[in-house]
Amino acid sequence: MIIREFLKSRSARFEVFLHRPSHSASHLAESIHVPGRCVAKGVLVRAGEGYALAVLPATHRIDLERLGRTLGGVETRIATEAEVEQIFADCEPGVLPPFGQLYGIATVVDTSLSGGSEIVFVANTTHEGVRMRFRDYEAIESPLKARFAEPISPRRPRSRKAG
Question: Quick check: helix, strand or coil at residue 145?
């Protein structure tokens, strides 16, 4: 289902905007000049015998062990490209909107996203974004909230040796 149609059907307040095609949440944040902590990325994980959609800030990465404990102590791994394409068949490759319920899977959102007033995320394509209040997203999706992500350490420039 097209995300904007889904949000309209839920009477949600949101803004759709076009941007340069982005193949990562970090690039989206840079291209639209929004802090990465406000840009939500979806990551499909294999959790036991099923799947879950992990939603976290662009500035973070998943701690799979912690996420597995959150999901009931199951073994978790990042889904393969083939698994992502199978479940998110109506989306461009690599695009995972943060609405697992649309695809019949549970959604778990990292609590670090809930601290902001709004979130930005991709819709079904690499060039269409959505901005909405976090509390509206939460009311529509009803995700499990947990702390399972950790900040990605910024790369430090290599020091030059004198001489």
Answer: strand
